[in-house]
Amino acid sequence: MMSDQYTYNSQELHSYRLHQLEKESESYGSSNRRSDEIPLMRSDRTGCCSKIFSFFTNCCNRLSEGLAKSCRKEKEYKSRSVLIGKENSKYAEVFPPNIIRNQKYNIFTFIPLVLFEQFRFFLNLYFLIMALSQFIPEVRVGYLYTYWGPLGFVISVTMLREAIDDIRRYRRDKIINGEKYKKLTPNGVIKISSSEIHVGDLIIIEKDQRVPADVVFLRTTEKNGSCFIRTDQLDGETDWKLRLAISNTQQLQSDEECFNINAQVYAEKPQKDIHSFIGTFSRSDESSYEDSLNIENTLWANTVVASGTALGIVIYTGNETRSVMNTSQPKSKIGLLDIEINTLTKMLFFAVVVLSLVMMIIKGFGGPWYSLRVNLDMGKVVYSYFIQKDKEMPGCVVRSTTIPEELGRITYLLSDKTGTLTQNEMVFKRLHLGTVSFSSDSMDDVKSHLRTSFQSKSEGSGKVRKTVVSRVHDAVKAIALCHNVTPVFEEIDETPEQNEANMQGSESVVYQASSPDEVALVKWTESVGLGLVKRDLNCMTLRSPDNRHHEYALLNIFPFTSETKRMGIIVRDSSTGEITFYMKGADSVMQSIVQYNDWLDEECGNMAREGLRTLVVAKKSLTEDQYIDFEQRFNNAKMSVEQRSARVAAVLEGLERDMELLCLTGVEDKLQDNVRSTLELLRNGGIKVWMLTGDKLETATCIAKSSRLVGKTHGIHTFKTVKTREEAHAELNAYRRKHDCALVITGESLQVCLQFYEHEVVDWACQAPAVVVCRCSPTQKADIVKLLKNHQGKRTCAIGDGGNDVSMIQAADAGIGIVGKEGMQASLAADFSISQFAHLGRLLLVHGRNSYKRSASLSQFVIHRGLIISTMQAVFSSVFFFASISLFPGFLMVGYATVFTMFPVFSLVLDKDVSANIAMTYPELYKELTKGRSLSFKTFFLWVLISIYQGGIIMYGALILFENEFVHIIDITFSSLILTELLMVALTIRTWHYIMVIAELLSLGIYIASLAILKNYFDSDFLKTPSFIWKVSVLTAVSCIPLYVIKFLRKRFSPPSYSKLN
Question: Which positions fall inside the P-type ATPase C-terminal domain (predicted)?
Answer without folding.
Answer: 828-1055
